[in-house]
From TrEMBL:
Keyword check for rRNA processing: no
Similarity field: Belongs to the GcvH family.
Gene3D superfamilies associated with the record: 2.40.50.100
All residue ranges annotated as the Lipoyl-binding domain in the record: 22-104
Assembly and binders: The glycine cleavage system is composed of four proteins: P, T, L and H.
Gene symbol of the encoding locus: gcvH
One Gene Ontology biological process: protein lipoylation
Protein name: Glycine cleavage system H protein
Organismal lineage: Bacteria, Bacillati, Actinomycetota, Actinomycetes, Micrococcales
Native source species: Microbacterium trichothecenolyticum (Aureobacterium trichothecenolyticum)
SUPFAM superfamilies attached to this UniProt entry: Single hybrid motif
Amino acid sequence: MTDLTALKYTAEHEWVALDGDVATVGITSYAADKLGDVVFVELPAVGSSVTAATVVGEIESTKSVGELYAPLTGEVVAVNDAVVDDPSLVNADPFGAGWLVKITVDPASVADLLDRDAYISLTGGAE
């Protein structure tokens, strides 16, 4: 199980796990619940540059289409092909097998993101 207190969060309902200068990014269980059953995921290409707060992908569900925002500026070094092949992983395991992209970043930039308590306050108590 992922230690949710070790993650950082965005107001767009993404989580970030930092390992050195690589940030693994996914959407929170709160976002996955709000979306409903995820049926399609479009992710940026490996090697592409992303800028914080810009749209880099799309998540479609039976209810709506949501945009995936880059939580940080950097270069995409990996995408989760398993989620592209089986989008239901986003709902089944949003903090684990449902991760979306890995981005090389300036580790100091993660400090600007929300901690778990701030994110829970933002969502009214949900994760």
